[in-house]
Amino acid sequence: MKVAFLACAALLVSGASAAVHFKETFDDTWSSRWQKSSWKKADGSAGEFTLSAGKWFGDAEADKGIQTGPDSKFFATYAAMDSAVDTTGKDLVLQFSVKHEQDLDCGGGYIKLIPASSADKMESFGGDTPYSIMFGPDICGYATKKVHVILTYKGTNYLIKKDIQALTDQLTHVYTLVIKPDNTYQVLVDLKEVASGSLTDDWDMLPPKTIKDPKATKPEDWDENEKIADPEDIKPEGWDDIPATIADPDAKKPEDWDDEEDGTWEAPTLPNPEYKGEWKPKMIDNPAYKGIWVAPDIPNPDFTPDDSLYAFKDLKFVGFELWQVKAGSIFDNIFVGDSLEEAEAFANDTWAKSKDGEKAAFDKGGTVVNHDGQAVADVLVVGERIAAVGLDLKAPEGAYVVNASGKLVMPGG
Ligand SMILES: *[C@@H]1O[C@H](CO)[C@@H](O)[C@H](O)[C@H]1NC(C)=O
Ligand SMILES: *[C@@H]1O[C@H](CO)[C@@H](O)[C@H](O)[C@H]1NC(C)=O
């Protein structure tokens, strides 16, 4: 009996293969899978997604994604997953790549997973359509350069409290979100972890675990005065004898002043230049200072842990819903599944194969900025390393050449 049971368990483990819920690499057939939303169409402020590999890429076909255009428009498109996904007991891995080829000044670059319950609203899918997860970069000016991770819990959207920096260069980057049944998460950029932690702690989906004890009161003898008057500083003698004002020494009694009629003449007063103001002792550090009193933390009676924070029961659609001032972002290689390893293998097979070629293409003919100042030169990049800098370099066979004249190329950047 025992042997049979063990054998059975082993079978279960080996049979538990990774599930891929959705994969999209975008090719000529993409529009048969992706629906255009009618959002913002009526007032003419809706833009379009078009298939493009952009101006620099590693592989002209494989690197095609969907690109936003024209400028200052709203963009919305979505695709349905084969069946609704319930992540109970499973990891959820959401991954995609985006290239802000246009040097995005202001606009969204994120993806959304949308529940089956929004199905009847998808025809006009847009900013107000209820979603489950929103993930990816959002850039606007100098102030906003963040990676959003917004989770919907009991109908409310919660933003991650950590600041995760978005990359703002013009190359393709892979963004990966993992949400796990132990209520932890990971965010990876280009397959390297940039944030991780607890769903309970890094979002406000649940009330805080601890609160300041409302019953605690400041002890009577708690001294919050940082400075006190120096007891050894004594008022100099005669300080108070100096009047604030004096009679104007230059004033003269008018000729026609009649003491009997006008009363006794008095000279007008002036501020006394000798006057030093009210005496104040010197302030010194208070030896009894204890800092500002704060109530101690106690467990929050309103906090109840929720072990299923991570679970999304009916994920059905994958969508982009964006507003961009400067359009031109290219989205590609979307993955939704339950295995980070599988997602990584997919990124290895797509983004990782093209990234060096893309960077070489981007850098070709750029302006090199280094410690010698600026010089116009060609830059050949192989992998993460600059292989050559010089004028009129020969591009290696197969390299894509971009005229990057006027663009800044930062070695090591
Ligand atoms: C992806 O590529 C990296 C670098 O070559 C490698 O270390 C890693 O094992 C690969 N991952 C998978 C899942 O194939
Ligand atoms: C590259 O672009 C610059 C500026 O647009 C232009 O002056 C230059 O002739 C171009 N170079 C080549 C090789 O096309």
TrEMBL record:
The annotated region (Disordered) lies at: 205-225, 246-278
Highest taxon of source: Eukaryota
One cellular component term (GO) for this entry is: endoplasmic reticulum lumen
Name of the protein this chain belongs to: Calreticulin
InterPro entries per UniProt: Calret/calnex, Calret/calnex_CS, Calreticulin, Calreticulin/calnexin_P_dom_sf, ConA-like_dom_sf, Metal-dep_hydrolase_composite
Could you list this entry's UniProt keywords, alphabetically sorted: Calcium, Chaperone, Disulfide bond, Endoplasmic reticulum, Lectin, Metal-binding, Repeat, Signal, Zinc
Cited Pfam families: Calreticulin
Record SUPFAM superfamilies = Composite domain of metallo-dependent hydrolases, Concanavalin A-like lectins/glucanases, P-domain of calnexin/calreticulin
Tell me, in a sentence or two, what this protein's role is: Molecular calcium-binding chaperone promoting folding, oligomeric assembly and quality control in the ER via the calreticulin/calnexin cycle. This lectin may interact transiently with almost all of the monoglucosylated glycoproteins that are synthesized in the ER.
Cross-referenced PANTHER family: CALRETICULIN, CALRETICULIN AND CALNEXIN
Signal peptide range equals 1-18
Q: Which cysteines are joined by disulfide bonds?
A: C106-C140
